[in-house]
Q: What sequence folds into this?
């Protein structure tokens, strides 16, 4: 059972001390309702025109606000309602206001596109937004699943709680080219340099909205945003107060295909309290309990370092069978080929030489020698592959403890306590990340010339694996980064054109500083119709592992970071050769500068409302070029100092780890890769609260050099369809949402496995019933309604149907 509990305590404290010696303060009370349903309108913004004073309505629609004097004009606004201004002349009268509902298409306010609030229609770059209302109505058990319905977004599912969203290619479990920021804080696991999905972060109840910037976004948000930046914002305790809870329960694995039917439980609670106009706090907690999806890919895999492939065969037909998710069957030598090439020869000397090779192979163990001798003897005696394999397996398994027995558990416990650095399985990660950031808007000083904002941030990584992953056995390793940015924007031609330029400089102590510019233009072609043009750049410093990893992975092979200290410590500047270049290239390897990778992107887009503001169209097309790709290469250091020993081993099919030390090091590729793609989204509001939506997007590589592995791992085409209703039936309390997602088959590449991922078709659905008086909702839903098993990566979890019923109290 997997249980995840996260606690988030947020305290907002601002302007604790304010003094006004001359004004006579007046308190205004009021109530806000929906003019259509007559229901209380909660979390509505109340501000005083011409002042900075503001508050929000309670869950009953009530509010109180203090002004310096009367008359005062209140601005009453909320997404989904028409803005109203009310002038108050008598504080003794209760201000009762009714807001008229209106379409929210294109009216959402976003901040991430330019770091200042603006309507999403007026964003100068592509942006996607998910609100708390979208999460409530989505046919999804997790808010991360909602991201997969956005155009151009792919989500790689590694487990029930570990989902990795990315955009514009380079998918995988752990996206190092995507920034994920929660309430302004970088949410990466600092020892991994990528966010780990729902394991660390906000609870679903506390998510107010999610903003996603596809593609390059380093100019405002720093290193790492090459394929997007995701900003998750929590609910303001001043705005959303009181006790809220949500309970979901359901079932998984209903067809028992991979494991028995299992329950799914998700409980979350949130409590927020406004203590005064200056102070508020909130506490939230979530518990998830379920038996996770299993990786169950039994396809046969031919391993060739990091360049393997899927091949025909299974356990019954291939003695060298290596199932992707079948563990304990990996080998370093294909004994079948050796035997078949030797039938008819003298068995005794051949058998001895072969077993000697196995015993010295590094990747083999004692059981395999026993297996090989029995197998070879059976094949040389004329038995079939299958019979020889069965006999050899039976012999090799003698004395092997079976899983679940005390003997097996004792061995497992023992090896789990031994650090990886000493041959065991214990991995320690106590790495910390410290971050501070500030921003200041200078527009009140520079407004006549341009609206200008400036900002800066500082990060410090403290690597601490106690020698199990990093080269930190003697103590923590510190890495410092700092960055600063400036942005200027100017409206021209009677506000029909808005130009924005941005620039950012970042410095990592181990690399040269980098400057990333951005330039955008927003052109108003009609009311609520805008064309956008942009040039954006992004880059990524090598990850903490790419800098400082020092890990022995067996078979005389070691993963190293690109730091020059490793080159000196292991003597890699002499007697070292590029393994992939042998036997033809026997020149010693020459190290090049180790530096960040980068991307430059050009984009054109359009977003607008038509058909009386009932149809929203959002389209984009982009072209990008990546350079200095960070990848890994294999070097070998001959034990004898003579490269000819390695050449001879290759010629005789002897593992090269017998004759040399192998090092995997990160390097920058000299090849440049181009990407291009497009996206189109259409949302249409129909009568009677019906809505339909469709989006289609495409991402593709261009000019990839022969033999170059990009790890693009992305479908060329994908599409989403949805049909929903936000209110029908008795008092418009019923609602539903049905979504369909399709993506094309694609070739998946990773450091561990490569292979084709079949096309994916899924249907998600939910039907709900609202209880307006308590702001509660009852929902019956299904992820993958038709239980069509799929996975997003070779060897990843195979995802089936999840069927649930949920109840949320005080959640809207």
A:
């Amino acid at each position: 059972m997997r249980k995840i509990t996260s606690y988030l305590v947020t305290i907002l404290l601002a302007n604790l001390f304010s003094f006004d010696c001359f004004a006579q303060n007046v308190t205004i009370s009021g109530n806000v309702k929906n003019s259509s349903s007559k229901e209380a309108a909660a979390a509505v913004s109340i501000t005083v025109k011409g002042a900075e004073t503001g508050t929000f309505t309670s869950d009953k629609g009530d509010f109180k606000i203090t002004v310096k004097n009367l008359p005062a004009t209140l601005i009453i606004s909320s997404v989904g309602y028409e803005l109203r201004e009310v002038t108050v002349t008598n504080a003794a009268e209760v201000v009762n206001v009714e807001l008229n509902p209106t379409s929210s298409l294109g009216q959402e306010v976003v901040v991430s596109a330019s770091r200042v609030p603006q309507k999403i229609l007026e964003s100068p770059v592509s942006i996607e937004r998910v609100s708390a209302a979208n999460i409530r109505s989505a046919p999804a058990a997790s808010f991360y699943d909602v991201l997969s319905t956005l155009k151009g977004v792919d989500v790689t599912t590694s487990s029930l709680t570990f989902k990795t969203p990315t955009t514009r290619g380079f998918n995988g479990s752990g996206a190092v080219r995507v920034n994920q920021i929660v309430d302004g804080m970088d949410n990466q696991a600092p020892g991994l340099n990528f966010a780990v999905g729902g394991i660390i972060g906000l609870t679903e109840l506390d998510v107010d909205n999610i903003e996603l910037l596809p593609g390059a976004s380093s100019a405002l948000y720093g290193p790492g945003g090459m394929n997007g930046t995701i900003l998750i914002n929590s609910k303001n305790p001043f705005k959303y107060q009181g006790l809220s809870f949500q309970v979901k329960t359901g079932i998984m694995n209903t067809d028992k295909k991979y494991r028995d039917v299992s329950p799914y439980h998700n409980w979350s609670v949130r409590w927020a309290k406004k203590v005064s106009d200056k102070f508020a706090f909130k506490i939230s907690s979530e518990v998830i309990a379920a038996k996770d999806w299993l990786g169950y890919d039994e396809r046969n895999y031919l391993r060739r370092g990091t360049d393997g492939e899927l091949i025909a065969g299974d356990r019954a037909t291939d003695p060298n069978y290596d199932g992707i998710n079948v563990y304990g069957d990996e080998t370093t030598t294909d004994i079948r080929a050796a035997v078949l090439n030797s039938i008819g020869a003298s068995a005794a000397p051949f058998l001895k030489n072969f077993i000697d090779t196995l015993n010295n192979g590094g990747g083999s163990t004692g059981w395999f020698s026993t297996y090989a001798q029995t197998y070879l003897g059976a094949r040389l005696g004329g038995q079939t592959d299958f019979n020889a394999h069965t006999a050899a397996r039976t012999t090799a398994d003698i004395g092997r403890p079976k899983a679940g027995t005390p003997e097996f558990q004792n061995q497992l416990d023992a090896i789990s306590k031994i650090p990886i650095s000493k041959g065991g399985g214990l991995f320690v990660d106590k790495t910390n990340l410290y971050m501070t950031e500030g921003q200041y808007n200078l527009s009140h000083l520079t407004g006549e010339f341009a609206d200008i904002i400036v900002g800066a941030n500082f990060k410090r990584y403290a690597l601490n694996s106690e020698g199990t992953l990093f080269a930190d056995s003697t103590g923590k390793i510190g890495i410092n980064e700092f960055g600063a940015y400036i942005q200027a924007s100017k409206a021209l031609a009677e506000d029909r054109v808005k130009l924005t330029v941005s620039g950012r400089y970042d410095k990592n102590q181990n690399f040269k500083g980098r400057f990333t510019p951005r330039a955008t233009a927003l052109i108003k072609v009609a009311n609520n119709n805008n064309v956008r043009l942009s040039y954006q750049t992004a880059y990524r410093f090598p990850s903490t592992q790419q800098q400082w990893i020092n890990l022995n992975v067996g078979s005389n092979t070691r993963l190293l970071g690109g730091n020059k200290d490793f080159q000196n410590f292991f003597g890699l500047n002499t007697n070292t050769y590029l393994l992939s270049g042998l036997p033809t290239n026997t020149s010693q390897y020459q190290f090049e500068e180790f530096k960040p990778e980068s991307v430059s992107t050009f984009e054109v887009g359009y977003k607008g409302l038509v058909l009386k503001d009932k149809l929203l169209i959002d389209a984009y097309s982009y072209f990008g070029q990546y350079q200095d790709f960070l990848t890994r290469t294999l070097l070998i250091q001959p034990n004898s100092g003579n490269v000819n020993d390695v050449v001879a081993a290759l010629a005789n099919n002897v593992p090269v780890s017998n004759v040399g030390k192998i090092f995997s090091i990160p390097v920058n590729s000299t090849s440049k890769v181009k990407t291009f793609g497009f996206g189109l989204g259409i949302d249409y509001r129909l009568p009677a609260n019906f809505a339909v939506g469709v989006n289609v997007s495409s991402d593709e590589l261009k000019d990839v050099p022969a033999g170059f592995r990009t790890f693009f791992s992305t479908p060329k085409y994908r599409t989403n369809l949805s049909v929903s209703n936000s209110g029908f039936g008795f008092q418009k309390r019923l609602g539903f949402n049905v979504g369909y997602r399709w993506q094309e088959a694609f070739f998946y590449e990773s450091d561990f496995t490569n292979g084709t991922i079949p096309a994916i078709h899924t249907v998600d659905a939910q039907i709900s019933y609202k209880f307006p008086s308590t702001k509660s909702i009852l929902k019956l839903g299904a992820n993958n309604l038709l239980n069509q098993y799929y996975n997003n990566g070779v060897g990843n979890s195979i995802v089936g149907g999840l069927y649930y019923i949920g109840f949320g109290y005080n959640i809207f």
The chain has a mean pLDDT of 85. The CA atoms of residues 281 and 446 lie 35 Å apart. Residues 9-99 form a domain with the Immunoglobulin-like fold (CATH 2.60.40.1120).
